[in-house]
């Protein structure tokens, strides 16, 4: 009897893992077409904020056709210039980040847009091996089931652009008083400039680092546009 108990527990644990894995795959597959009304990071922010004082989040899902092409090119320029050619992971940047960490330098991000989508939708902040492993798991299935345009569409709708500001539509309305479809290249670049730390850097009254980064992003957008990025995304 004592020998069968560990076996039953092992089977029980394995069934749970297989069920969770299947559920996660089905969730990723379904989101290939469905709008994303809320993400794990949005829920986490709301929980952290509590209810006193009342905390309001702004988020409105908009389809690809209602997002300015400048916004898509801006986030590629700012966050992941190899987005259209990699399969979810930029191994060169990962190797550089690991080398820097091994030399005792400040840990820097090496996540692609696909990895950020996986993290934003399903996971939590942090740098634990468990979370990074789950991020890789979701990234593989996102790249398998979704098109690059869909990944960008979800990213632009789920990225944080300030405290309580989620998605490019909410950000465009909050900071520029217009729909995301009407963003110009400089406005799109300014939004992308705060993405490394949207609760630290500000779109309104932004400091010199953000403004310098905005100028650099615009220059990269021009280069990517000349290379035909927009044609690839259509």
CATH homologous superfamily caption of the largest domain: Biosynthetic peptidoglycan transglycosylase-like
What is the radius of gyration?
19 Å
CATH architecture descriptor of the largest domain? Orthogonal Bundle
Q: Report the order of strands and helices.
A: HHEHHHHHEEHHHH
First-last Cα distance: 63 Å
Give the fraction of residues assigned to helices: 55-70%
- The backbone outline, from C-alpha atoms, is globular
Uncertain segments are none
CATH topology (level 3) name of the largest domain: Penicillin binding protein transpeptidase fold
What number of structural domains do the residues give?
2
Description:
With 234 residues, the protein is mainly α. The chain folds into 2 domains: 1-30; 37-87 and 141-233, Biosynthetic peptidoglycan transglycosylase-like (Penicillin binding protein transpeptidase fold, Orthogonal Bundle). The protein is 60% helix and 3% strand. It has 11 helices and 3 strands; from the N terminus they run ααβαααααββαααα. The chain has helices at 4-30, 40-49, 69-79, 91-102, 113-122, 129-145, 148-158, 168-176, 185-193, 208-226, 229-233; strands spanning 58-59, 160-162, 165-166. α3 crosses α10 (208-226). The radius of gyration is 19 Å and the shape is globular. The mean pLDDT is 90.
